[in-house]
Write a structure and sequence with these properties.
The protein has one domain: Jelly Rolls (Sandwich). The chain is built from one helix and ten strands, in the order H-E-E-E-E-E-E-E-E-E-E. Strands 1, 2, 3, 4, 5, 6, 7, 8, 9 and 10 form a ten-stranded mixed β-sheet that branches. A hairpin with a 3-residue loop joins strand 7 and strand 8. The radius of gyration is 29 Å and the shape is globular.
């Protein structure tokens, strides 16, 4: 009788020990899929501001959504607009990482319409690149140098798809203060990344 009690007791202990493993194995595993959170900026439209002497004379959008620069750069010299440069959209390869001295990006949404983006750079280099991830209609870019010269790049309101494009080449090397781009997303969300290379 004692042997039977020990056997039954031992069997009960083994079953209790194995129960959690059997129970867990029989349960369905719940997998949580976390989707990236897309933060859309509030859409507040304001009048587009261009300064006297602006070299583009076609009708520009009256209202835009203005995105403040992530880094504010003060330009001490008076602004002098150079003749506009017409942009040629040719996709290229981005220079090697060791040649890139600065980068920043901004996401724009189709519902926002024209978005006035501003990038505070305050760094020296010899070329600017624009990486479009999505589809964007581009109006113009303003590259402001530390001496106050402003080079306007006219995109002629054309639509461009994903790719890396050379925005402006200044092989002599210049100190770039800011870059301003007026663009409209023609896909759900479009990411614009600006690079400065040396």
């Amino acid at each position: 009788m004692k042997k039977l009690i020990f056997k039954v007791g031992g069997l009960a202990i083994v079953m209790v020990a194995l129960m959690p493993a059997v129970y867990v194995a029989g349960q369905r595993r719940r997998v949580l899929v976390r989707r990236p959170v897309v933060v859309h900026h509030p859409v507040v439209r304001t009048t587009l501001v261009v300064h006297p002497g602006y070299p583009i004379h076609r009708a520009l959008p009256e209202t835009v959504v203005v995105r403040p620069a992530h880094k504010v750069v003060t330009i001490e010299a008076p602004l002098l607009f150079l003749p506009a440069v017409t942009w040629t959209a040719i996709t290229i390869s981005l220079p090697s990482r060791d040649r890139l001295v600065w980068q920043d990006s901004e996401e724009i949404n189709r519902d926002e319409g024209w978005v006035d983006t501003n990038f505070g750079i305050d760094s020296s280099g010899n070329a600017l690149f624009l990486d479009i991830n999505g589809k964007a209609r581009l109006n113009f870019a303003e590259v402001t140098f530390s001496n106050g010269n402003v080079q306007v790049v006219d995109f002629k309101e054309r639509t461009h798809g994903s790719g890396v494009y050379q925005l402006l080449d200044f092989a002599d090397g210049r100190r770039v203060s800011t870059v301003r781009i007026l663009a409209k997303s023609e896909s759900g969300d479009t990411k614009l990344t600006v690079y400065l290379s040396k």
